[in-house]
C-alpha cells in the first residue's frame, strides 16, 4: 500500500480532531437525556415562547423580540436604546459608529430634554475624539441649551474652544460652569489653561503687530528712497510693450502708481533665493542683480549689489583668475566684455559703460527694474555671436548726465 502523500496526510488536522471523539465527547454536545430541553432554548425550535423573556436567560430571543417589536416602543425607549448602543461603540473607540447611533437617537422625536442633552453631549465627545471640533462644539452648545447645568456639556464645550484657540470663549464657558460648580477641578484646570494660553496669544499678537509696523515703516522708507532716486519699477503683470510710444509724463505716472501699490514681494527677486532690494544703515541701496550670457545660456545672480559699486569691479571678480567652466575659449576677460540693458517699452538695447555705478545706470530714463531685479546682458565684444545677436536690434550707447 502506498504511503499517503503530503496532501492526503490529514485534512488540515480534521482526522486528528475526529479521532478525539473515540475517547472523549464534545462537552457542549446534546445528549440523550437533555437534547429536548436544549432544543427548547433555541428560538428556531421552540414550541412555545416564555411569557416573560429574561434577556439573561434568553439573549437570542430577547434580540429577536426587540427587532420584531421595535415599532411598538416609545421614542424615549428607542432613544435610550440607541444611546446605550452608542456608548458601547464609544467604549470600543469606534467613534464614527457612536456618532451614527447618537444621531439616530436624536432623530427619534424623543421629548425628554435630559436624555437629548445626554445624546448631544455624548455625540460631542465622539466628534471630539474624531477631531471634529466644530461639530463637537455645536453639540455641546445644543446640550447646554437643553440643560444649562449639564456639567459634561460645559466641560466639553470649553475643551473644544481651547482646541479651536478661542481662548476668550473657553474662559466664558469655564466661568459660567464655575458659577454652577465652583469646586469642579476639571473646570478650574481648563480655565487656568485657557487664561495662560490667552495671555500668550495676546503677547504674540502684540509682537506681530509691532513687527508688522516695523516692516511697514521699512517698506515705506525703501519705496521713498527708490522714488527719490528716480528709479522706475515695473510690475510683473505689466505688458512688456505698448501699442504706441507715450510721453515721459505718462510713464512717470505709471511708475508713481506702481510705487504706491507695490508690496514687499513686488520688489522681491523671483529667484529661488528670494533676495530683495534693501537699504543699509548708511542709506545705501543693495539690489539683487541678474547677469545674462545668451551665448552660453548661462546666468549669474548677485543677491546684494551695492548701488555705489561699478560694474567693472564685479566683472573683474567674476572673470578674474578663475574663468567659468562654460567659457571654454576663455573669451570672457573683463576687457573684452560689453554690457547692455533692454528698454522694456521700445525693445531697444542700451550699452552700459562698465566704469559706471549701478545707481547711475538705474537712474537712466529708459532703464526700468522688473520684478525687483535689474538684469543686464553680457557679450564678448566683436565676437561672431555678439554681431549676430545685435544685428537687427537698435543699440544705443548709454549717455549719462554728469
From TrEMBL:
What are the GO cellular component annotations?
Answer: nucleus
What is the protein named?
Tetratricopeptide repeat domain 4
Gene3D superfamilies given in the database record:
Tetratricopeptide repeat domain (1.25.40.10)
Q: Where is this region: Disordered?
A: 194-216, 234-256
| Highest rank taxon of the organism | Eukaryota
Family statement: Belongs to the TTC4 family.
Sorted keywords for this record are: Repeat, TPR repeat
Q: Which residues form the WH2 domain?
A: 218-236
Q: Where is the composition biased (Basic and acidic residues)?
A: 194-207, 234-245
Q: Which GO terms describe its biological process?
A: cilium assembly; determination of heart left/right asymmetry; otolith morphogenesis; protein folding
- Origin organism of this chain? Danio rerio (Zebrafish)
Amino acid at each position: 500500500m502506498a504511503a499517503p502523500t503530503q496532501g492526503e496526510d490529514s485534512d488540515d488536522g480534521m482526522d486528528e480532531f475526529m479521532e478525539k471523539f473515540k475517547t472523549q465527547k464534545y462537552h457542549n454536545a446534546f445528549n440523550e437525556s437533555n437534547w429536548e430541553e436544549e432544543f427548547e432554548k433555541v428560538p428556531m425550535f421552540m414550541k412555545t415562547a416564555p411569557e416573560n423573556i429574561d434577556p439573561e436567560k434568553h439573549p437570542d430571543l430577547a434580540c429577536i423580540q426587540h427587532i420584531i417589536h421595535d415599532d411598538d416602543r416609545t421614542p424615549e425607549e428607542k432613544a435610550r436604546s440607541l444611546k446605550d448602543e452608542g456608548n458601547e461603540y464609544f467604549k470600543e473607540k469606534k467613534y464614527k459608529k457612536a456618532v451614527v447611533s447618537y444621531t439616530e437617537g436624536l432623530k427619534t422625536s424623543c421629548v425628554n430634554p435630559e436624555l437629548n442633552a445626554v445624546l448631544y453631549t455624548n455625540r460631542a465627545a465622539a466628534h471630539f475624539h474624531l477631531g471634529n471640533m466644530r461639530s463637537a462644539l455645536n453639540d455641546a452648545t445644543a446640550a447646554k441649551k437643553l440643560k444649562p447645568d449639564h456639567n459634561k456639556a460645559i466641560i466639553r464645550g470649553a475643551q473644544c474652544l481651547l482646541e479651536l484657540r478661542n481662548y476668550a470663549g473657553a474662559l466664558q464657558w469655564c466661568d459660567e460652569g464655575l458659577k454652577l460648580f465652583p469646586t469642579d477641578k476639571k473646570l478650574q484646570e481648563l480655565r487656568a489653561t485657557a487664561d495662560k494660553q490667552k495671555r500668550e496669544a495676546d503677547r504674540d499678537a502684540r509682537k506681530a503687530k509691532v513687527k508688522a509696523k516695523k516692516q511697514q515703516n521699512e517698506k515705506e522708507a525703501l519705496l521713498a528712497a527708490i522714488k527719490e532716486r528716480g528709479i522706475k519699477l515695473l510690475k510683473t503683470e505689466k505688458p512688456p510693450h505698448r501699442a504706441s510710444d507715450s510721453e515721459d509724463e505718462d510713464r512717470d505716472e505709471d511708475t508713481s502708481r506702481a510705487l504706491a501699490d507695490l508690496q514687499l514681494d513686488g520688489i522681491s527677486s523671483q529667484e529661488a533665493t528670494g533676495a530683495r532690494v534693501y537699504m543699509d544703515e548708511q542709506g545705501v541701496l543693495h539690489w539683487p542683480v541678474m547677469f545674462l550670457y545668451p551665448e552660453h545660456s548661462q546666468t549669474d545672480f548677485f543677491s546684494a549689489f551695492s548701488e555705489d559699486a561699478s560694474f567693472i569691479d564685479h566683472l573683474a571678480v567674476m572673470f578674474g583668475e578663475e574663468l567659468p567652466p562654460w567659457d571654454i575659449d576663455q573669451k570672457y576677460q573683463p576687457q573684452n566684455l560689453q554690457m547692455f540693458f533692454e528698454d522694456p517699452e521700445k525693445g531697444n538695447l542700451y550699452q552700459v559703460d562698465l566704469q559706471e555705478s549701478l545707481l547711475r545706470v538705474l537712474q537712466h530714463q529708459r532703464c526700468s527694474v522688473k520684478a525687483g531685479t535689474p538684469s543686464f546682458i553680457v557679450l564678448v565684444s566683436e565676437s561672431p555671436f555678439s554681431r549676430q545677436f545685435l544685428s537687427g536690434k537698435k543699440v544705443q550707447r548709454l549717455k549719462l548726465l554728469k
